[in-house]
Amino acid sequence: MPKFQISPKLQISRRRFLTSASLGLSGIMLSGCDAFDSHLGVGDGLRGFLEGANDLTYRAQRLLAGRDALAPEFTEADIRQPQRPNGITAPDDDVYKGLLANDFADWRLEVSGLVEKPLSLSREQLQNMPSRTQITRHDCVEGWSCIAKWTGTPLSLVLDQAVVKPQARYVMFHCLDTIDRSLSGDIKYYGTIDLIDARHPQTILAYGLNGKPLPVENGAPLRVRVERQLGYKMPKYLTKIELVDGFANVGGGRGGYWEDNGYDWYGGI
Amino acid sequence: MESVARSQPTAEADTAPSKDATLIYRQSRWTRLTHWLWAISLFFMLLSGLQIFNARPQLYIGKESGFDYNNTVFAIGAENTATGPRGYTEILGKRFDTTGVLGWSGPAGQETSRAFPSWATIPSYYDLGTARVVHFFFAWILSTTLIVWLIASLINGHLRRDLAPRIDDIKRLPRDIIDHAKLKFHHTREYNTLQKMAYGGVLFVLLPLMIITGLAMSPSMNSVLPFLNDLLGGRQTARTIHFIVMALLVAFFIIHMLMILAAGPINELRSIITGWYRTDPPADDGKPSERGA
């Protein structure tokens, strides 16, 4: 092994470097943390570099959790309060209000895109399929959690019925609620999950909450539960499920409404 | 390799500022490199973490957050009073007015309701999604650095030689506490007992606990390690522990800075940048000082 010695010259230059670096860092702290603001917007170079870690995080979670590892389930005793609603809790859309006025008798879930047999399912048809009930903890990206009992149709059964084409990679959820407005019109909530999560045993199209029909504030008539991810990955007020092979035609191209606003596509942490 | 250089006095002549001081090679390149990677990572993780906290500035005990019942142990918020909006911080039900810093802050006339102030968060404006990107990027750097450091320190002997507690450490703990209280510092090759406790505490307790409680908050990791939250007392308790450990790390940082200033910032900084550290000259009676190299 070669001896490790620092030449005085190197030492000085390194010292100078670190001194100026630490001065720079303290300057940043003094001027406030807005120093980073202009580099962290969606599409900025530094942001893109840091987002590379999201991919690593996703791969690590997939590697460890695999396809079928189950999210923890709880007991009836753990249900101590109503499920806290978040995001849109009363859609102001005419179409939605019309469906609600008729107790969703005219509502259908369309299953389309890369499938052999497109479907149009009524709530009764979904409820007549085998169901799964699970008491799980809902974790919001904001940091809070709430435990509730969800009842619904496993998404995998619906996918099997529609016969997914081999080139399909993601399930896209189309919703009835307007989450945002843009120059080109209202933006209805949308999001995607991959087929691994779509076929996960706990991924259900929920129509029941704590033993009662799903209330409006929690996504009536139908919302998805993706128990190994955060709340923003579980769209409410579903109207259509579309099988897609990429994000090109999904909103801004990042795979979901919140994703287009800078959130990670895989909400597993 | 580096231990060879340590016993070689050759470089001393180039860098020793005075004849009676003894310059020793104290910190290996692995220790120095990982130290600065942690410093950078913790800086960004703290400021992005405070931004993440701002999205839900309450901490709870248990599996979930109580909305219909009260399991809140800590909260930062704002409220309207007769004299205008005030910021408050509530710890275990006890409320403190923290206007200007916590709960209600901003430039004069443009104050807003936000838990941690703009200058303490990345980005400075409210942006949970971006804070998460920054937080998880540096989480990888921090954890990887911890593993690299652990392996390097096992191989190069740093762990065994410098950090492992010995019987002597316990014996000299009282003396050590008195010395620190008097700001009397011994510059030796070895860490003193309080240093060992502080560094060992950060590296083997606080940082691992930070990583474990961070993973316990992940719904996907909950499916891999379902026992984690049972062990910690639930996801919301894990989040509370995560926050408390953050506060302890900030406390460590402040004490670390004060100790460096008190013990001689040039010498301390040189050792963590170049590795070379000036130890106390031998005692007058010719014997090496009590804890001298």
Write structural notes for this entry:
The complex is a heterodimer of chains A (about 270) and B (about 290). Chain A has helices at about 10-30, 45-65, 95-100, 125-130, 155-160, 195-200, 255-260, and strands spanning about 110-115, 120, 130-140, 145-155, 170-180, 185-195, 205-210, 210-215, 225, 240-245. By secondary structure, chain A is of the alpha+beta class. In chain A, β7 and β8 (about 210-215) form a beta hairpin. Residues about 1-10 of chain A have low confidence and may be disordered. Chain B is an alpha+beta fold and about 290 residues long. Chain B is about 55% helix and about 15% strand. Chain B contains 12 helices and 8 strands. In chain B, the strands form 3 sheets. Chain B has a 4-stranded antiparallel sheet with strand order 2-3-4-5. A two-stranded antiparallel ribbon of chain B has the order 1-8. In chain B, β4 and β5 (about 95) form a beta hairpin. In chain B, α3 (about 30-55) packs antiparallel against α4, α8 packs antiparallel against α11 (about 235-265) and α11 (about 235-265) crosses α12 (about 265-275). Chain B is globular, with a radius of gyration of 23 Å. Mean pLDDT of chain B is about 90; it is low at about 1-20 and about 285-293. At the A-B interface, α1, α2 and β4 of A face α1, α3, α4, α9 and α11 of B.
